[in-house]
Amino acid sequence: MIYQLTEGATVEQLEAAGLGTFYAIRNGALFPADPNGVPWTATYIQAHADPVADLHEDMAAEQKARATYEHLLNLAEDPGAKDALRFLREREVVHFQRFGEALRIVQEYQQAKKVY
């Protein structure tokens, strides 16, 4: 999406959009980072070796991503970008639902009487 929106942009247009430093370092290469330019790191992944805690963490991450897509939709003007953002937002909703189903299954298993 970023490539599509910046394809063919001049250096002057990138600078005017606040992307001059990004261009200087990476040209048009993709680089996983948050909107503030903070690079992605594995420290963002939360795991506790407790399936209930981990699934709740996963569900929270999906809701945060959904909210971010909604905020991006409010900022976007390009119809193609808005369509892509709507798709991604709905995908987060489905992920949240699937994690919720997995949580229910795990909790039912944990509560079931085990007979050996």
Automatic annotation (TrEMBL):
It comes from the Bacteria. Keywords: Manganese, Metal-binding. InterPro entries: Ferritin-like, Ferritin-like_SF, Mn_catalase. Gene3D superfamilies: 1.20.1260.10. Its cofactor is Mn(2+). Binds 2 manganese ions per subunit. GO terms for molecular function: metal ion binding. The keyword Manganese applies. Mn(2+) binds at E62, H95. Belongs to the manganese catalase family. This is Manganese catalase family protein.
